[in-house]
Write a structure and sequence with these properties.
By secondary structure, this protein is α/β, with parallel strands linked by helices. The chain has two domains: 156 residues, Lyase, Ornithine Decarboxylase, Chain A, domain 1 (Beta Barrel), CATH 2.40.37.10; 170 residues, Alpha-Beta Barrel (TIM Barrel). The chain contains twelve helices and 21 strands. Strands 4, 14, 15, 16, 17, 18, 19, 20 and 21 form a nine-stranded mixed beta sheet that branches. An eight-stranded parallel beta barrel has the order 5-6-7-8-9-11-12-13, surrounded by four helices. A three-stranded antiparallel beta sheet has the order 1-2-3. Helix 2 runs parallel beside helix 9 and helix 5 packs across helix 6. The longest helix is centred in the middle third of the chain and has 19 residues. The model has no long low-confidence stretch (mean pLDDT 96). The structure holds ligand LLP. Ligand LLP binds next to helix 10 and helix 11.
Length: 418
């Protein structure tokens, strides 16, 4: 269900007019729907009920504490890629023992922090990392639970920047080498093998690549069992796509049903690490039109959100639906580019859109709940946006807008020379 819908020409977040949020907290602002977040997460839980499982929400998609707390309270585990993300999870009372640690470049201090916190598993991405984990676990006189992230060499058929399961990508351990690395891991005294892991990419709109990767992982599980290495879980990563425009990704329940069918009669816990499919369509970016300008044959709508707030159109050529918060019938639409104030030609949120807008109007950028705020920056010394979560008719400010002073905190000029 869409929780950012129009009633009588006014866009709402659940039961709150977006215009009310803008007048209270200003723009640009990210607005999340509590109901949408819960529904998306629970769709995974429902589809997986009856099979041993763990849904580890990928924190990188949206790491706001209110989002994490909501999901933790619903029983989510977490997929983290840094000590910072782990700290966020622990801060909201998330369970370390339901947390998996992914990423190609885990630093020694991060491994130590995660081991001390008691995380469920390290998704190990290289032999060097395996040895580093062994060393740190031995020093702490403990055992580290690990799985190997295999690179199954499957084409996820997605944007090259978010495809991760091909040999040419930096991620995971090549599936042929993984068998040997598992044997090496089995011989390490402070490491305990508990799983196998893969993540082939993001915004996948077909089930087949997932099933191909799963087949390859299961074949490896079979080979490992033959030599006495038993894994308890299979982690299929995240990656399920969402509808931004006209994509038709499978519904969560169909995707999970297809995966479970292949796992029948296997005594394997299924871990999934969804990010985008939980948060993307549970959030929007609210922005105000500063100026309308025309350069000969091109119309520009200059808004107060920019590539520093939402970089996906610039970085991936992503298409996000943009619509006026207030619309009137029979208004004259014009083709325009929606651009921000940042000094880069690549600073746009949408190109060649038909919109009827004037100075001062509010615009809603849809599907902005994943990889929106988390990828935002302070480029051009722009304070990052406020974040708001709506719960039915209540507006909660879940992150204050940054102040310019806060951006300069920690910076120092050189001492005066006499
Ligand atoms: N697990 C691992 C190991 C990952 O690397 C990722 C995403 C996920 C889970 C979650 O994937 P999701 O379910 O969200 O597709 N910034 C890009 C997406 C980068 C995804 C990186 N890894 C974008 O805005 O499209």
């Amino acid at each position: 269900m869409n929780h950012f819908a129009s009633h009588k020409g006014e866009l709402y977040a659940e039961g709150v007019p977006l215009a009310d949020i803008a007048s209270r907290y200003g723009t640009p602002a990210y607005v999340y729907s509590k109901k949408a977040l819960s529904e998306h997460f629970l769709a995974y839980e429902q589809a997986l009920s009856g099979h041993s499982h763990l849904v580890c929400y990928a924190v990188k998609a949206n790491s706001n504490l209110a989002v994490l707390k909501l999901l933790a309270d619903l029983g989510a585990g977490f997929d983290i890629v840094s000590a910072g993300e782990l700290k966020r999870v622990l801060t909201v009372g998330g369970s370390a023992d339901k947390t998996v640690f992914s990423g190609v470049g885990k630093r020694a201090d991060e491994i130590e922090y995660a081991l001390k916190a008691g995380i469920h598993c390290f998704n190990v991405e290289s032999k060097g990392e395996l040895e580093q984990i062994q060393r740190i676990a031995r020093n702490l006189n403990t055992t580290a639970a690990i799985s190997l992230r295999i690179n199954p060499d499957v084409d996820a058929l997605t944007h090259p920047y978010i495809s991760t399961g091909l040999k040419e990508n930096k991620f995971g351990i090549d599936i042929d080498t993984a068998f040997t690395v598992y044997q090496q891991a089995a011989a390490l005294p402070n490491v305990k093998i508990i799983g196998i892991d893969c993540h082939i990419g993001s915004q996948l709109t077909e089930i087949e690549p997932f099933l191909d990767a799963l087949d390859r992982a299961l074949a490896l599980v079979g080979k490992l069992t033959e030599i006495g290495i038993n894994v308890e879980h299979l982690d299929l990563g995240g990656g399920l796509g969402v509808r931004y425009r006209d994509e038709t990704p499978p519904p969560i329940k169909d995707y999970i049903a297809a995966v479970l069918e292949k796992l029948q009669e296997r005594n394997l816990t299924l871990i999934v690490e969804p990010g985008r499919s939980i948060t993307a369509n549970a959030g929007i970016l609210l922005t105000r039109v500063e100026y309308i300008k025309n350069n000969g044959d091109k119309n520009f709508v200059v808004v107060d959100a920019a590539m520093n707030d939402m970089i996906r159109p610039t970085l991936y050529d992503a298409w996000l639906n943009i619509e006026p918060v207030h619309s009137e019938a029979n208004q004259l639409e014009e083709v325009c580019d929606i651009v921000g104030p940042v000094c880069e030609t690549g600073d746009f949120l949408g190109k060649d859109r038909r919109l009827a807008v004037k100075q001062g109007d509010l615009l809603c950028v849809h599907s902005a709940g994943a990889y929106g705020f988390t990828m935002s920056s302070n480029y051009n010394t722009r304070p990052r946006a406020a974040e708001i979560m709506v719960d039915e008719t209540t507006i909660h400010l879940v992150r204050e807008r940054e102040t310019i002073d806060s951006l300069m905190r920690g910076e120092h000029t050189l001492p005066e020379t006499p």
